Amino acid sequence: MKDSEIPELVQRAKDGDEEAMERLYHLHNRQIYGLCLRMTSNPTEAEDMTQEAFLQAFRKINTFRGDAAFFSWIYRIATNVVLMRRRKKVHPEVALEDATAPNGVAPGIIKFIKQPDPSRKLVDEMHLHWALDQLPDGFRNVLVMHDIEGYKHKEIAKRTGHSVGNSKSQLHNARHRLRELLTADSHAL
Question: What are the structural domains of the chain?
């Protein structure tokens, strides 16, 4: 299917066409699952979050204006689903007396101190998602298909309806632009 056919599927989905929704799901679920898996490192959670992202998308399909590609929209929804789930995770409360080892040191605290700052990883992921959102649709789609989902240029060319050379050029330009955006963004921090 060509990207040019997606707006028609979206319109049909807005009209309540379940077949169009199913087709949109099958076109994008692998990519969205890959995103969720990268962000969670947990296949079960990634599956749940992928389903949740599509449920939210289809509930809110009438809010999709078409300013960006449908994939960009569902990608942002999935990112938000993962981030919201992380925020909602409740850490078990343990009394300090129970957490303290006989030597007076709380092993959980030492373990936490030795680990890298988990919020830094989240900030880095958010910067990456922001930078990806800044890329033109063609650049972003080729970059995601090649570097994240592992498609070969021949497969990308077939999916997008463009040449292999176009895929390679788009990937090169996308990487260059992404590098610029991330470098500029890190200097701004």
Answer: 1-90 (1.10.1740.10), 117-189 (1.10.10.10)
Angle at 174 between CA 123 and CA 122, to 5 degrees: 10
**What is the chain's Cα-based Rg?**
20
| 58 HSE (CA, 13 A, CB side) | 19
- Give yes or no for a contact between 171 and 150, defined as CB atoms under 8 angstroms apart: no
For 129-153, what is each residue's pLDDT tens digit? 788 888 888 888 888 888 877 788 8
pLDDT digits (tens, 9 = 90+) for 155-181: 888 888 889 999 899 989 988 998 888
Distance CA 29, CA 80 (A): 16
- Rounded Cα gap, residues 32 and 21, in angstroms: 15
Look-up of token digits 């063609």 = 138
Q: Is 0.70 topped by the overall pTM?
A: no
